[in-house]
Design goal:
Blueprint: H1 12-21, E1 37-41, H2 56-61, E2 69-71, E3 77-79, E4 82-89, E5 92-97, H3 111-122, E6 136-141, E7 144-149, H4 156-159, E8 188-194, E9 198-203, E10 216-221, H5 225-233, E11 239-240, H6 245-248, E12 256-269, H7 279-288, H8 292-298, E13 303-305, E14 336-342, H9 347-362, E15 365-371, H10 377-381, E16 387-393, H11 401-409, H12 423-434, H13 439-455, E17 458-470, E18 474-475, E19 492-493
Parallel strand pairs: 1-10, 1-11, 14-15, 14-16
Antiparallel strand pairs: 2-3, 4-5, 5-7, 6-7, 8-9, 9-10, 11-17, 12-16, 12-17, 13-17, 18-19
Helix pairs in contact: 11-12, 11-13, 12-13
């Protein structure tokens, strides 16, 4: 099947939108000869930049909110706001705070602040996904904070690296919402948020990690991928995240960076109601999906065909165990299904259209429902679609795939689009979550992946590569496959 290629022409409607919104005009000029960074983001805030939502990743990518722990390239924990930590007893970890850290409002970082932030996150509804299945209590004394879990949790330091567990000043917690403006500890101070259109950050002159090299960041939110790429081509943006594959070939080679990332494009099948409640129909859908044309056509070769839920960004995923015998595919006999997806990732509507044709060929009658992500997420989580196409990060916040697998496929997982409730899967996920880090945990994770795939609740199609756009004069922007970092204290324009 030959899929339609994107045209390089920028539609008049897109150009008009840019002019009407002033999307890429910087809010400030040079500061003592230094240029502010103009950054274009894909998804606008959905929860007022609350760190208890996915908006937390924006705060992390702008280096404004920080956590106790960070992760290195291998996913191992490294010091951030905590200088060191130890496993004090079977269920308790004790963290020693870094000295000399102040919040953006001038108040010093104390154990009381850490207790407040982590306790608020642990009691949130819904919880930050990294705390799925985790109960914890936090106590502070002097320069130390103790975190006690209901059961032994060898992954706790990695969990505390999640941007959703950022530590903010007391001022952020006035009322029921969490407001991060002026409340972080990072290299840049969040000064202003203009709804879903823009944000402004200034350099934190008192940053504990040293004076940031850029005077500030001017952020614009532009869901349209063609418009984001056009901003880089025209010189109206310095850094652009998530350049669509259709636009990559239109940019200069030195303007793009392509990195395999732990993100899988997956077809989730509703196992609780509708056509795909029947395992034979799920097997029929799995058998009908051919990822090769999607990689070659929609992604123009800038992706990898999936062998499982975990991809090439996780090297040890190749050591998969043999799967159990799969359920034989049934005959769809013209059964009607609705596939949902969203427009925010430019490739997904095309993927859904290609799947529509493949599933029709297999005998299904297929309807597509495509909206912006903010307007479709709640329906997807409520199980209102027979199937859903999603681009999903597979190491999530902890750098460990067990958290993603639990969130998406456990019976009580917070992001269970497949509505899966399978005892064998839950047992495998519990084992993976409780096994100490190292080879044994990796083996348990792969066994849990196999248990999920045996249900055909999810059909992994391809593993994406992140494509980031940088102007030629950008220095030291982060190319982070986990999508946690973008602008750091070392990022600037030459």
């Amino acid at each position: 099947m030959r899929l339609r290629k994107h045209t390089p022409f920028v539609p008049v409607a897109v150009a008009t939108t840019l002019l009407a919104t002033g999307c890429f005009a910087s809010t400030s000029g040079p500061v003592d000869g230094e240029q502010r960074l103009r950054v274009v983001m894909m998804l606008p805030p959905r929860s007022g930049l609350s760190p208890l939502s996915d908006d937390a990743f924006k705060l992390s990518r702008w280096s404004t909110a920080e956590t106790l722990v960070t992760l290195d390239a291998n996913g191992d924990p490294r010091p951030a706001l905590a200088e060191k930590w130890r496993w004090s007893d079977e269920r308790t970890w004790t963290f020693t705070l870094r000295s000399g850290v102040t919040f953006h409002d001038g108040t010093p970082l104390t154990a009381k602040d850490v207790v407040r932030s982590l306790t608020r996150a642990a009691g949130a509804a819904p919880k930050p996904r990294i705390l799925d299945g985790v109960e914890l209590a936090v106590a502070g004394k002097g320069d130390t904070v103790s975190v006690t879990t209901a059961v032994a949790d060898p992954l706790l330091p990695q969990r505390l690296s999640s941007p959703q567990l950022s530590i903010l000043a007391a001022r952020a917690y006035r009322g029921k919402t969490v407001d991060p403006v002026g409340a972080g500890t990072g290299a840049f101070v969040l000064k202003k948020v203009n709804g879903t259109s823009s944000a402004t950050l200034d350099r934190n002159e008192d940053y504990w990690g040293g004076r940031p090299k850029a005077p500030g960041i001017d952020v614009r939110f532009v869901p349209d991928g063609t418009a984001r790429a056009a901003a880089l081509r025209s010189g109206e943006a310095d850094i652009v995240e998530a350049v669509p594959v259709s636009q990559a070939s239109l940019l200069k080679e030195d303007q793009i960076t392509e990195v395999p990332m732990p993100r899988t494009n997956t077809l989730y099948l509703n196992t609780r109601r509708g056509v795909f409640r029947d395992p034979a129909m799920r097997a029929a859908a799995r058998a009908a999906v051919d990822a090769e044309p999607l990689v070659k056509g929609v992604y123009e070769g800038r992706a990898d065909v999936a062998e499982g839920l975990l991809g090439p960004a996780i090297p040890w995923a190749k050591q998969r165990p043999e799967r159990a015998k799969r359920t034989p595919a049934g005959d769809p006999k013209g059964r009607r299904i609705t596939i949902g997806t969203f427009t925010d990732r430019a490739e997904l509507p095309e993927v859904a259209a290609a799947l529509q044709q493949q599933l029709r060929t297999a005998g299904f009658r297929v309807k597509l429902e495509i909206r912006e992500y903010a307007n479709i997420e709640s329906d997807a989580l409520a199980g209102k679609f027979d199937a859903f196409v999603l681009s999903r990060a597979t190491v999530l916040d902890s750098g460990d795939p067990a958290a993603y697998l639990y969130s998406d496929f456990a019976g009580d997982g917070s992001f269970n689009i497949s509505q899966l409730a399978d005892p064998a899967v839950d047992k495998a996920l519990e084992k993976a979550s409780s096994t100490p880090t190292g080879a044994a945990r990796r083996k348990a994770v792969l066994e849990a992946e196999a248990a999920v795939l045996n249900t055909d609740a999810a059909v992994p199609m391809l593993h994406e590569r992140v494509i980031q756009g940088d102007a030629a004069n950008v220095v030291n922007s982060a190319k982070d496959p986990r999508e946690r970092l973008l602008v750091t204290a070392d990022t600037h324009l030459r």
